[in-house]
Design brief:
This is DeoR/GlpR transcriptional regulator. One of its GO terms (molecular function) is DNA binding. Keywords: DNA-binding, Transcription, Transcription regulation. InterPro entries: Carb_Metab_HTH_regulators, DeoR-like_C, DeoR_HTH, NagB/RpiA_transferase-like, Tscrpt_reg_HTH_DeoR_CS, WH-like_DNA-bd_sf, WH_DNA-bd_sf. With about 250 residues, this protein is of the alpha/beta class. The chain has two domains: about 55 residues, Arc Repressor Mutant, subunit A, CATH 1.10.10; about 180 residues, Rossmann fold (3-Layer(aba) Sandwich), CATH 3.40.50. It has ten helices and 15 strands. The strands form four sheets. Strands 6-5-4-9-12-14-15 form a seven-stranded parallel β-sheet, with helices on both faces. A three-stranded antiparallel β-sheet has the order 1-3-2. Strands 10-11-13 form a three-stranded antiparallel β-sheet. Strand 10 and strand 11 form a beta hairpin. Helix 2 crosses helix 3. The longest helix is centred in the first third of the chain and has 15 residues. The protein is elongated. The two termini are about 30 Å apart. The relative contact order is 0.13.
């Protein structure tokens, strides 16, 4: 296989999954570890990806943000596993908060029939929950065109008068020094406020979110529960003293 063909394969995998594993690339492309290492190094020099332990992840600007439709197609299997486990934690007749995001959106179908009340800032989330027969309230405020998330002072004011048994938040990036971060400062404030209103907080993040930093900090790492599909041993060891990691099977 030509080098350019390997590059196309690697970049296509990144677009669909957000992260690639070196061992999987070696098997799929039938090449040596040194070849994959050279390929990833060259693509990193071109600005196409960022190398991480055991592979690489997509390059994203700190303030760039994908639409929920784009996010839905990245790491689908991982998000589905995370979402199914997260939904299993919800008990009947609870009051929960779910923010806008592709992983929280994947939770919705598993909440049907639980007789719960959901508050969300996700326009698409609210519509889907209503179709499923779940009692749902949406926050008021400005709607972000890109993600269909509601943000702003009105949403913050409404949240201040609510309490939740569980809060589920998606997150763009998780870093030991940077903390939990997201591209939009207004959304970061709303996430932080929602986290403070819950008895239990769960961060939903696939493995591609670890080790990156976005523009606006939501929270510092301080023992929060993060639900993830699987982390490398080195990554778990790195983050284990800062957060509580719950791995789920894909």
């Amino acid at each position: 296989m030509l080098t350019v063909e390997r590059f196309d394969y690697i970049l296509d995998r990144l677009q669909h999954h957000g992260v690639v594993n070196s061992s999987e690339l070696m098997k799929a492309l039938d090449v040596s570890e040194s070849t994959i290492r050279r390929d990833l190094s060259e693509l990193e020099e071109r600005g196409e990806l960022v190398r991480i332990h055991g592979g690489a992840k997509l390059v994203r600007e700190m303030n760039s943000e994908q639409s929920i439709q784009e996010k839905t197609h990245i790491n689908q299997e991982a998000k589905e596993a995370i979402a199914k486990y997260a939904a299993s934690l919800v008990e009947k007749e609870e009051f929960i908060y779910m923010d806008a995001g592709s992983t929280t959106f994947a939770m919705l179908k598993y909440l049907q029939g639980k007789n719960i009340t959901v508050v969300t800032n996700g326009i698409q989330h609210a519509g889907q929950l209503s179709e499923l027969g779940v009692r749902v309230y949406t926050l008021g405020g400005r709607i972000k065109n890109q993600t269909q998330a509601i943000i702003g002072s009105l949403a913050l004011e409404q949240l201040s008068g609510m309490r939740f048994s569980r809060v589920f938040l998606g997150m763009n990036s998780i870093d030991i020094d940077g903390g939990f971060t997201t591209p939009d400062p207004e959304e970061a404030v709303l996430k932080r406020h929602a986290a403070e209103q819950g008895e239990r907080l769960y961060i939903l993040a696939d493995s591609s979110k670890f080790g990156g930093v976005s523009f606006a900090r939501v929270l510092l790492l301080d023992g929060q529960t993060v639900i993830v599909e699987q982390l490398s041993d080195q990554m778990k060891e790195k983050f284990d003293e800062f957060i509580h990691i719950r791995e789920v099977s894909e």
